[in-house]
């Protein structure tokens, strides 16, 4: 069997997403697939765009900004999904119109000084390990309120990564419950950015509006540098 190309994998995963959506009575058009291209070079992103990908995700500013600079001719929306330091926040907002990893007050304060607006998701930490990205559930309400009083950020919803060692269905049920805390304050923040290569079917069943899929489409990532 010939090796699947990136284009083949994109088509196959897109078909699987459509099937998984229909299986739970959802319209696949309500789901945005963000292809996470971290550690992969610009030509791979170009190939994906030629295959019809319109949303790409990155997790490291230096790498992402260099790649973006090579690809400004493409019709792509760039999403930032990685841990974000406040001193990089404004620079990231130069090329990413969506940030999925808002998780602390200092980052929001920096984004408040932008001259344009961006879309944001609050990342929730489901692990209880403060070293991981994401706001702790205890601080979720306060961060939501801070973002709501920041005109440069349009709050779209919440984002989370299912922890290792917990069935994704259980993790996603917790996210939905925490999402309700946000919705009580921000009724239009209906977005749910959950679902990666290993758990996007469960995420679709749990109501995901945004999937962040890397390796299932890009293939194995080259080693981190
Ligand atoms: C890398 C990454 C993904 C994609 O992971 P895969 O398992 O390769 O699909 C999704 N979300 C975040 C936050 C990531 O860092």
From TrEMBL:
The Alanine racemase N-terminal domain extends over 43-222
Q: Which residues carry this modification: N6-(pyridoxal phosphate)lysine?
A: 38
Per the similarity annotation, which family is this? Belongs to the pyridoxal phosphate-binding protein YggS/PROSC family.
**Cited InterPro entries:** Ala_racemase_N, PLP-binding_barrel, PyrdxlP_homeostasis
Which CDD domains does the record cross-reference, listed alphabetically?
PLPDE_III_YBL036c_like
Functional summary from the UniProt entry: Pyridoxal 5'-phosphate (PLP)-binding protein, which is involved in PLP homeostasis.
**Which Pfam families does its entry note?**
Ala_racemase_N
An example of a GO molecular function for this protein is: pyridoxal phosphate binding
Q: Which cofactor does it need?
A: pyridoxal 5'-phosphate
List the keywords (alphabetical).
Pyridoxal phosphate
What's the name of the protein?
A: Pyridoxal phosphate homeostasis protein
**Which Gene3D superfamilies does the annotation name?**
Alanine racemase
